[in-house]
Amino acid sequence: MSEPSTKRQKVTYDLIYWPGIPGRGEHIRLALEASGTPYNDIANDDKDGIKAVQALIDPNSTTDDAGNPPAFAPPALRVPGAGRDGKPLLITQTPNILFYLGDKIGMVPEGDEAGKWHANAIVLTALDLNNETHDTHHPVAVMKYYEDQKEESLKKATDFRENRIPKFLGYFERVLKGNTKGDGKYFVGDKITYADTTVWQVLDGLFFAFPKEMEARKKEFPVTLQTFYSSIKEEKGIKEYLSSGKRLPYSQGIFRRYPELDRQ
Ligand SMILES: N[C@@H](CCC(=O)N[C@@H](CS)C(=O)NCC(=O)O)C(=O)O
Fold it and tell me: Coiled-coil segments, which residues (predicted)?
């Protein structure tokens, strides 16, 4: 991680995301925590913070007070003074927020233009895996309960475990091995970037949702599931955050534990 400049540290970002779950907001939190960047976690810090999430997705809204277009869904990042006419800028879509933050908070490989694009591609791939994980418990309809699509979930999760997990893990393994500067600990370059925090969060969620499957895959993908996964937990900023009590437990979000969907 490169040191955030004095200019960078002046901004306190607002993260607007559902309270009580890690969800996609966690990708933003981890990047901010790893870089020691101050932020407000609006819906978790303030008991009325949920209102900011509700306002974000108000179906009658066409714009906010600062002229930003409405959000489709959280997470969103509000940046004081960075919008039009010095008003707050509202940024949505997880990878868009991460890409915006990347060089501002020192979570992209500094002075390495190619590395910046490589990091972003790895993030987008990890978020594809994130989305595919969601589909294992909601393969038919997002608005229906898991209990209403259990049969299809079992088929989807079986294919996910048998084919998709190893394909993604194989890709991560190759990238980590190919980045000789990273020593198996970093995806791009020799310091932590937002590619590392994003992949780590998806792996951590998968360890929660499919513990038997992931445990069984450890020998096959040792760099990803052993070296990388355990070393990121020890990174400055991340280590403190994980043990701070601020880290929210998994529950009914993207990563859910349904033992019947795991390896038997
Ligand atoms: N592609 C968007 C997906 C956003 C998203 O699906 N957010 C979830 C919470 S993690 C949500 O509230 N979705 C409501 C919906 O899709 O109707 C992103 O990465 O930010």
Answer: none
Q: Which pLDDT score, from 0 to 100, does residue 3 have?
A: 47
CATH superfamily of 6-104: Glutaredoxin (3.40.30.10)
Q: Chain-wide mean pLDDT for the chain? A: 95
Q: Is 74 in the pocket of ligand 1 (CB under 6 A)?
A: yes
Cα(72) to ligand 1 centroid in Å equals 7
Decide if 119 contacts 187 (C-beta within 8 A): yes
Task: Give nearest CA residue, ligand 1 atom 2.
Answer: 93
CATH topology of domain 113-235: Glutathione S-transferase Yfyf (Class Pi); Chain A, domain 2 (1.20.1050)
CB burial of residue 149 (10 Å; 0-12, 13-18, 19+): middle
Q: Which residues are within 8 A (CB) of 117 and not within 5 positions of it... i.e. 6 or more apart?
A: none
Distance 34 CA to ligand 1 centre (A): 23
Q: Atom 16 of ligand 1 has which residue's CA nearest to it?
A: 73
Q: Do domains 6-104 and 113-235 have the same CATH topology?
A: no
Model confidence at 6, pLDDT cuts 50, 70, 90, reads: very low
**Which token pair is 123?**
């993030």
From the list 126, 131, 153, 139, the residue with the least C-alpha distance to 258 is: 153
* Annotated domain spans of the chain: 6-104, 113-235
